[in-house]
Design goal:
Layout: H1 8-23, H2 26-69, H3 78-105, H4 108-116, H5 125-136, H6 142-173
Helix pairs in contact: 2-3, 5-6
Length: 174
């Protein structure tokens, strides 16, 4: 039930956002809307290229299936079958390599490795699931967004505490 209730900081952020938005001129509001539309279109293009590669692979598999079903004597076509399977494997391998390269370019690989160093008991299960989804680019639910916001607030508080402890350490060391 907690996930449906807004905490004070979320309410304050919403108020600030609404005040800033209401203070903008109509022209600035239209510019923001156009920018949001551009961002959405870019996201759709990236997902559509992924969908096209998946569709191409499925078409290749179906084409192979149809060709294989029409063969009466498969023993003579062993070399051809091997080339089909190798081509399908290379398509999968190329797609995986492309996905890994884009992840490394985005700097996600070092983040994932450092995330793996965090002890399992450090975060609760739902927060860990939400972080995994965020790191791997999987679609998040509203519950995941809630737990990520909650974690963000906890991290901010702990970082403030860390600053105070650093000051105290400097005082004690002097």
């Amino acid at each position: 039930m907690d996930k449906w209730l807004d905490d004070n900081e979320t309410k304050e952020n919403k108020k600030k956002r609404n005040e800033i938005y209401s203070s903008l001129s109509n022209e600035e509001k239209n510019d923001l809307k156009e920018q949001k539309i551009r961002d959405l279109v870019r996201k759709e293009k990236t997902t559509s290229s992924f969908d096209e590669s998946r569709r191409d692979f499925l078409n290749s598999v179906l084409e192979f299936k149809v060709w294989l079903e029409n063969r009466a004597y498969i023993k003579g076509d062993i070399e051809r079958i091997q080339t089909w399977v190798e081509n399908l494997y290379f398509m999968i391998d190329a797609n995986i390599n492309l996905h890994n390269k884009t992840r490394i370019k985005n700097g996600e690989e070092p983040l994932i490795n450092s995330y793996k160093s965090i002890p399992v008991n450090f975060l609760d299960e739902k927060t860990r699931i939400a972080l995994n989804k965020k790191l791997r680019g999987i679609k998040k639910t509203n519950s995941d967004n809630y737990y990520l916001r909650k974690l963000n607030n906890v991290v901010k508080e702990k970082l403030k505490d860390a600053e105070y402890y650093a000051i105290l350490r400097d005082i004690l060391e002097s």
